[in-house]
Design a protein that fits this description.
Layout lengths: L3 E7 L3 H12 L4 E5 L25 H14 L3 E4 L2 E6 L4 E5 L3 E9 L3 E3 L15 E2 L2 H4 L7 E5 L3 H11 L4 E5 L9 H8 L4 E4 L2 E7 L6 E6 L4 E6 L2 E4 L3 E3 L29 E3 L11 H20 L1
Parallel strand pairs: 1-2, 1-6, 2-3, 6-17, 8-15, 9-10, 9-15, 10-11
Antiparallel strand pairs: 4-5, 5-6, 7-16, 12-13, 13-14
Helix pairs in contact: 1-2, 1-6, 4-5
The structure holds NADP nicotinamide-adenine-dinucleotide phosphate.
Length: 305
């Protein structure tokens, strides 16, 4: 058993890293546990971050590195360990990983969210063979080819813009006739000659032998289904929170987000939720980082009780 920590932070994206920085500066005994041993969360695969104050046009990977360097510079301990179970013992919590058990007075859940799947035929079978959830990771494989992006949010539009730089043609396939993405992204997208938006269209099936070859696209206005030949399809239809670990332990909403307000307090005393994993209006790097700071303030107040 490891020593009793004041706070164990699970997850090392912007929320977890900010929490680590605030906890260390508050003099708390803290460790950050990260599942993959790579910090950054979703920011890692963001090509360009242009809305974090003071750091315009940052590369997501570099920004993650900066968060980590900052935390390490302050002496925050960051360990690669996947928490498998949390036991609430009241005064302390026990966190079980494969090799070790951590005892802590408080926990900050900063486990983030991951890409949602569409659940259409061919999606699972062809993942990694033309089906991708990360344009910045896999886009280079489709240089000079025709690809499709599914979705109408910030990520879908950013992906389409990114892919248009190297691909011959990019179809953006969206189920409505209005994009959800920020206006600045929409304006940039509309200027690109090799992007075509298919409005009111839904992906129904992905076809191909060992590689994506064809999509079946249903137009919900005309109610017609047509094939579309592409070499790759990038699915950007939002996120699902990483909350399996705490199912049945803390209260969640119908989508699986942990119910917590700006104090980051969950339904269990001593367990806090920060970043994309909690119920909130806006899921961005800046709001995740803000949560990290707020969660630590709540931890400090909790420990004074
Ligand atoms: P999102 O904003 O939730 O957008 C998801 C998109 O996928 C929506 O257009 C939605 O359509 C569509 N969609 C959802 N389920 C679908 C389905 N079953 N079939 C077809 N289409 C479906 O998600 P996101 O783009 O991944 O962004 C996630 C969060 O990160 C957002 O808060 C976003 O603002 C933030 N983000 C911000 C930036 C930035 O500020 N630069 C960059 C990246 C991400 P509808 O529009 O019809 O609902």
């Amino acid at each position: 058993m490891n020593l009793i920590y004041d706070v164990v932070i699970i997850g090392s994206g912007p929320a977890g890293m900010a929490a680590g920085i605030y906890a260390k500066r508050a003099g708390l005994a803290v460790v950050i546990l990260e599942k993959t041993g790579i910090s950054g969360g979703q920011v890692l695969s963001t090509y360009e971050v242009d809305n974090y104050p003071g750091l315009p046009m940052s590369n997501g990977f570099d920004l993650s590195e900066k968060f980590r360097e900052h935390a390490e510079h302050l002496g925050v301990e960051i360990k690669a360990a996947a928490v498998e179970r949390i036991e609430d013992r009241g005064e302390t919590k026990l966190l079980y990983t494969e090799d070790e058990t951590y005892e802590t007075r408080t926990v900050i859940l900063a486990t983030g969210a991951e890409h949602a799947k569409l659940g259409v035929p061919g999606e699972e079978e062809l993942t990694g063979m033309g089906v991708s959830y990360c344009a910045t990771c896999d886009g280079a494989f489709f240089r000079g080819r025709t690809v499709a992006v599914i979705g109408g949010g910030d990520v879908a539009v950013e992906d389409a813009i990114f892919l248009a730089r190297g691909c011959e043609k990019v179809y953006l396939i969206h189920r409505r006739e209005e994009l959800r993405a920020a206006k600045i992204l929409q304006d940039a997208l509309m200027k690109l000659p090799n992007v075509e938006i298919l409005w009111n269209c839904e992906l129904k099936e992905i076809q191909g032998e060992d590689q994506v070859e064809n999509l079946l696209i249903y137009n919900n206005k005309t109610q017609q289904t047509n094939p579309l030949a592409v070499s790759g399809v990038f699915i950007a239809v939002g996120n699902v929170p990483n909350t399996d670990l705490v199912k049945g332990l803390v209260d969640m909403d119908e989508k699986g987000y942990i119910i917590a307000d700006e104090t980051c307090a969950t339904s269990v005393p001593g367990i806090f939720a920060a970043g994309d994993v909690r119920t909130k209006q806006l899921r961005q790097i800046i709001t995740a980082a803000a949560d990290g700071a707020n969660a630590v303030t709540s931890v400090e107040q909790f420990m004074l009780k």
